[in-house]
Design brief:
The protein is mainly alpha-helical. The protein contains 20 helices and 2 strands.
Length: about 475
Amino acid sequence: MTSTTADRGDTAFLGHPKALGYLAFTEAWERFSYYGMQSLLVLYMTKTLLLTPHVEQIAGFETFERIIQAVYQPGASTQAIASAIFGLYTSLVYLTPILGGILADQLLGKTRTIVLGGLLMATGHFLMAFDASFLLALLCLVLGTGCFKGNIAGQVGALYGEGDLRRADAFQIFYLGINAGVIAAPLIAGTLGETVGWHYGFGVAGVGMLVALVIYLAGRRHLPPDPPLRRGHKTARPKLQPGEGRTILLLILLLPVLSASVLCNQQIFNAYLVWADRSVDLTFGGEKVPTTWLITLDSVASVSFLAGMVVFWRLWAKRFKEPDEIGKLTIGAFVSVTGVLCLAAGAMIAERTGTQVSIWWCVLFHLLNSIAFANMLPVSLALYARAAPAAVGGTIIGIYYLHLFAGNQTVGILGTLLEKMPASQFWLLHAAIAMGAGVVFLIVGRFFAKWLSHENTSEARGQAV
């Protein structure tokens, strides 16, 4: 193995380097812990935590609520306050990877930063088991995810040399690991939380994070060594090359478009769960199944279509030209629109007939949303990992997560509208925003895609050698 990439001949894991397997399984368990907690968060707040007597036990909540009211103005609605808290928490989770990237690039290196992040996240999950430490738990999870998330994705990208076309497939495999964790999380943590006790679900999430750390440390020897730290001027580091500033600018300008394109997917853990809990017929065999199982349904569909899209694009490429990353993002955005339109249609029928929404509208939504997901999140991450200049690679990956910071902030704000408008209008609003993102992707693909092309980024890196 070289100083920057794994051995090019290493194909021990599904045709990819062995290290990818360790990283994928680490991420699977980390996401099990994260989504186990997140699948319960809004339901926990609306059904228990934000109600008397639990809310009075949260340390520092009076001051925190004043801030929430000043920024989001949710009013007295428990659901709106929960949505605002969810938006703030999940957005900060995607802001702190910038700090994690800087910490890894300049002080600790990726490995130690990832381990630190894992320990903070495990602590946060265990603190969620107690009402009093709720805000401290969220803080630990926000900081821990910042240290963990961007850096482990950067290590996936570092396994492949320039021009190695396996990189995009590697990120899709990486996302398969993520979704494997998300499938199990609601079935175990979600079911325990809803049926036995909320704190049991949060405790299981903490155990999952510890398992992730063990797997990561066991596979560390298979990863390429961390690049030299930026300490003073003793070590030569790559510098920005001509044309890379333009690439960075376009990557930054794409962030709000990416934010708009993922709103429908990100709303699943917030207003969608509350809406489904109240308005969707989830009764099977005379009993209502846990609402969090909808997350498992979504994850099963996501895993299926992630694997299916890898195969589909390989077969497509044998006869036709495969779309570049921007092309796939365009496809994903428009498919996302069709998915959320299913929710709008189901809600509209229920409003007119005075009945609950059929579960089959939700099933159709999850199927279409998963096709969109397979062509958006892993593809956009692969784009940023490939196009990021070597001089600021870790920071650019951190900046990439800003689109999820903004997206989740918007999800929290939009979620406060759930009780202020008919559900059909609520979902049509999401569809319109996603449609706008698809149109912008079309324009970028037509006029600016060359700024992000393999040839453009390869030429700049060649000048840095």
